[in-house]
Structures are given as C-alpha cells and as structure tokens.
Design goal:
With 314 residues, the protein is of the alpha/beta class. The protein has a single domain (5-301), classed as Alpha/Beta hydrolase fold, catalytic domain (Rossmann fold), CATH 3.40.50. It is built from 14 helices and nine strands. It has helices spanning 5-8, 51-59, 85-99, 112-123, 139-144, 149-154, 156-160, 166-186, 194-204, 209-218, 231-236, 256-259, 282-285, 287-301, and strands spanning 15-21, 24-31, 36-40, 63-67, 76-77, 105-110, 128-134, 245-250, 270-275. Strands 1, 2, 3, 4, 5, 6, 7, 8 and 9 form a nine-stranded mixed sheet that branches. Helix 2 (51-59) crosses helix 14. Mean pLDDT is 93; it is low at 1-9.
Length: 314
C-alpha cells in the first residue's frame, strides 16, 4: 500500500518545547490547545511518526504533545542513566507532571510508547485519564508467550539486541538497511514510507542515540542494569489496570493474536480493535482510520474521568 496524501501531510504548526525532569531534557513537539493528549513513539521511530494524529487531534480541539523518547536526540539523558522499564515510566511520569500539573491527561503510545503506557496505567493511574496502547501486548501476555517459536521469530530483535557490538554493526551497515528491513517486515505488504524512515535514520545516526535505543532492549532481560531506587515503582508495574484503555493492533501484525487475549489484565473499561490492512505502524499505515478511532475514543472518555492531583501527586 502506498502512502496517501493524508498520510504524507506534515504537521501544520507544531512547535518544540523543552522540559527537564528526572535527569532527562525532553524535547517535545506540540500543537493545538485544549485537553492534553500525550503521544509516545517507539522503535525505530521518532515523534514525527504521529504527524497525521497531531494534525487531526489538534484540529479537534486537543493540545497534543509528542516527545522524543529519552536519549533519542534532541531529548538528552545524563551519561549512565538507567533505561530499565521502571526508569522509563519514571521519566515519562515526570514529564506528565510538568506539562499537566495537577491534572491527568490522555495517553497514546505505540511500541515502546505502549510498553511505557502499560506501566504508567498500572503504577501511576492518577496521571492518566484514558489510554490508547498500540501494537504491543500487556506484559502478562508477553511473558506467557515469551518462548513461543513464532513470537520469538516475530520479535527476533529483542533477542538479537542482547548481543554485544554485533547489533550496532548490523544496524549501521549499508546506510542502516536494517531499519528499512524492520519497517518492511512489520508493515502490510506494499507499504512504503521512505521519507519518514529517512528521518528516523537521521535521528539514530546521531552520536549515542543507537546505543541508547538498544539499551532499552538490553535492560529488558538484565536486572543488574535496573535502577535499585525504583523498587517500589517497579513492583507496582504489575498492578491491574483500572484506567479506561483502548488497545489497538494492525490486523496484519502477528501480535494481534496476543492482544486478543489480554482483556483479563484490566479491571476498568477496556476495548480492543484491530485495524485492517495495517501492521505494526498502524497509525501511519492507516492514519485516517486510526484518527477516527482516536477521536471517537477521546470524545467518549473526555471530562468525566479527568483526575485532579494534589501537590503530593495524590
């Protein structure tokens, strides 16, 4: 499938803001005014991935903020910073507290953005009015199928990235053809997004970005690189999720098989939708369809579920 003109459109008036919190200097794209929606990207990607959603949601009366993940330049992190899941949740929680002081917001995440989103919904439900989590199953379901051969094959990069040095060599070879391969492998047959992938490569080629992106994956299976001061937060990542949540997956993504099973991981409102003719990057492959789903969802959860926080975060 070729990109439609709607998919190609660029953000009309997005600006950059900088927020420093918990040792991360976040750089975020922002556009619009109104209730706040946070859009969090994954790998291999950048916040411009949300261009169609930034335009659509801002035109619907939302203020949209889309950060570069910690360590994806220009979002800088301190040298030697922790990059385990609890730390990533901690960093994003700090960002939310800065951009939405005293009130919860709507959260939308894909890939790593979804992984972090599950953690935020479990550990910090006070921060989230509603959540849309795309293309990655709940961690309970991930663990259930972690050793399934076909899902090991689908997520081969999780295992390959545990190697030392070789992933860096493979990812940088031949103008990062590995990145082209991942986008081709994970999207519906015939989908092309060459200009966006070129921008993704430009980000990953900057000093330190690729090693940081790989460190996210290496921390998944190495408890020795987890921040010991976040043990309480880490334990709360397994809490049942009460935040109203919409899970989305491309119907052509093998992970849809897993996401169909995760309803029992939620104790609050939960819905699951598969997007036809889309794979892992469904928000780009079928942006118009995804935008309609998001607008309907945000409209159904707006206002009544917004949470006020005290000065202590409660």
């Amino acid at each position: 499938m070729l990109i439609t003109e709607t998919m190609k459109r660029s953000m009309t008036s997005a600006q950059q803001i900088r927020i420093s919190v918990h040792g991360v200097d976040f750089v975020c794209l922002t556009q619009g005014s109104g209730p706040l929606v946070l859009l969090v990207h994954g790998f291999p990607d950048i916040p411009q991935s949300w261009s169609a959603q930034i335009d659509a949601l801002s035109h619907q009366g939302y203020r949209v903020v889309a950060p570069y993940l910690p360590g994806y330049l220009p979002s800088r992190i301190e040298r030697g910073a922790y990059l385990d899941k609890a730390s990533l949740v901690h960093y994003l929680a700090g960002l939310i507290e800065q951009i939405s002081p005293g009130e919860s917001l709507h959260y939308i995440g894909q890939d790593w953005g979804a992984i972090i989103g599950y953690g935020l919904c479990a550990a910090r439900p006070d921060l989230i009015t509603s959540a849309v989590l795309m293309a990655v199953p709940h961690p309970t379901i991930v663990n259930k199928y972690l050793l399934s051969p076909k899902h090991i094959h689908r997520s081969f990069h999780w295992w390959f990235f545990q190697q030392r040095d070789l992933p860096e060599q493979a990812l940088t070879a031949d103008d990062m053809t590995f990145i082209d391969y991942l986008w081709s492998y994970w999207t519906s047959e015939g989908y092309k997004d060459e200009e966006h992938i070129r921008q993704v490569k430009q980000c990953l080629k900057q000093p330190g970005v690729l090693s940081t992106a790989l460190a996210y994956y290496r921390a998944m299976f190495d408890p020795d690189v987890a921040n010991p001061s976040l043990s309480t937060l880490r334990n709360s990542l397994s809490n049942s999720i009460s935040v109203p949540t919409l899970a989305l997956c491309g119907a052509d993504d093998l992970r849809a098989e897993l996401m169909r099973e995760q309803a029992d991981c939620f104790v609050g409102e939960y819905h699951y939708i598969e997007v036809l003719e889309a794979g892992h990057f469904l928000h780009r492959e079928q942006s118009d369809q995804v935008n309609k789903i998001l607008i309907n969802w945000l409209g159904s959860t707006a206002g009544s579920n917004q949470k006020k926080r005290g000065a202590d975060g409660s």
